[in-house]
Amino acid sequence: MPAVSTARLEARISPELQQLLKRAAEIEGRTLTDFVVSAVQEAAQKTIEQADVIRLSLQDQQRFAEALLAPPSPSPALKRAMARHDKLLRTEE
User: Fold this and answer.
1) Tally of structural domains, the chain
2) The domain containing residue 32 runs over which residues?
3) Residues 85, 74 contacting (CB under 8 angstroms)
4) Average pLDDT of 82-88?
5) Do residues 44 and 66 both lie within one domain?
6) What is the reported pTM?
7) In the predicted model, what is the mean pLDDT of residues 8-17?
8) Closest to 42 in 3D by CA, of 56, 54, 28, 55
């Protein structure tokens, strides 16, 4: 079985915070390391997900809604692309 590569993370915390973390880990029946790694991973994922959310100004929201409700007519290039797509689908059947 191949060895799993790991990295080390160290942090200096107050004794009070250490006791708090130990207590929380015990409540969940986990080791302190497992509890901290899991909590840090969840926080990192949440932060990244929040950063990945598209934020639009009120004016941009209005433009987006208008484009959905009344889309522009297809350009000649889009019409050609749709025709090629339809042709490809017909040949695969």
Assistant:
1) 2
2) 15-52
3) no
4) 93
5) no
6) 0.56
7) 95
8) 28
- On whether both 63 and 34 belong to a single domain, the answer is no
Closest CA to 21 of 34, 10, 8, 9: 34
3, pLDDT greater than 90: no
Is 8 inside a domain boundary? Answer: no
Tokens linked to 46 = 């949440």
CA-angle at 60, arms to 72 and 45, nearest 5°: 115
What integer is the mean pLDDT of 14-20? 97
Query: In the chain, pLDDT over 70 holds for what percent of residues?
Result: 96
Asked if the structure places residue 64 within a domain, the reply is yes
Q: Which residues contact 35 (CB under 8 A, 6 or more apart)?
A: 21, 24, 25, 28
Distance CA 38, CA 24 (A): 12
pLDDT on residue 93:
61
Shared-domain flag, residues 42 and 68 = no
